[in-house]
Amino acid sequence: MINYMKKIYSIYTKKSNEFLNIMDSYYLRGKISEKKVDRKLIGKSLILVPHADDEWVGCSQFIINNNSDVVLYNMDMQGGDSPDIHITRKKELEKMAYKYKLKLQDNIGKVEEKVVNLEKKIEEFKPDLIFLPFFIDWHEDHIAVMNILREALRNIKKDIDVKIVMYQVSVPIPEQYITTCIGMDRRTQIDKWKTFRDIYSTQAFFPVKRFCCNEYINGGIINSYAAEVYSCMDINEWLSDFSMIPDRKERIDIVNSFRNVKKIRKCTGKLIDGE
Length: 275
Fold this sequence. Notes:
The protein is an alpha/beta fold. The chain has helices spanning 2-30, 54-65, 83-99, 111-125, 140-155, 186-199, 208-219, 235-240, 248-255, 261-273, and strands at 45-49, 70-74, 103-106, 129-133, 163-167, 180-184, 226-234. The protein has a 7-stranded mixed beta sheet, sandwiched between helices. Strand 1, helix 2 (54-65) and strand 2 form a beta-alpha-beta unit.
């Protein structure tokens, strides 16, 4: 009986949080003003994938429309997964790459080896765009990938003409840093998350509705039903903004906030303002 009541309470809490996020998303979208941003990204692209599924959560619409010049670069971060789950998730990423005819390459090894591998890949592939998660993030693996890219770029002696494109995962990119929006109508958003469910079966627990709410809020920037958003910087600007990465205490604040679309925006706003 006790277990049954706990299950009922868990379901009630989940549904209540989902409803609250939906209501908050309507409110937050109403406070966003449409602004002029880029509507597409063009060029040879190297998408750094800390964990299988990050690329689809943050870059699905870019991938669908630009698959001929895209390389998914699997950074092979563990993410707290068991060895068996890690192998399964890699197979899921391979399935995603196959579905959209994407090139997929693994970056395996210790951190120092990953830096060297990434450095060589950048020099050989000569991408116009390098994608990775936005600075403000709670996940240590995402931040580790940022540091790996920073070291790789510092090690490249010759000048390279490349833009750093940061995509949104679980923490919304602050509006003032959004430079590009790729819009989605309601049908497209539904299809995006159906594909996610179909391919990433290990992520059955994933809070899709909360992510849809964040995309719906971002849609207000370009008057679209929903949108995937990006922050594009040149190398020097990206390197100079590295101090934006939250410290351990700030990451705890993010973890305590990101499940609510209103609280997480208030939290990131404080981080940006240095409060």
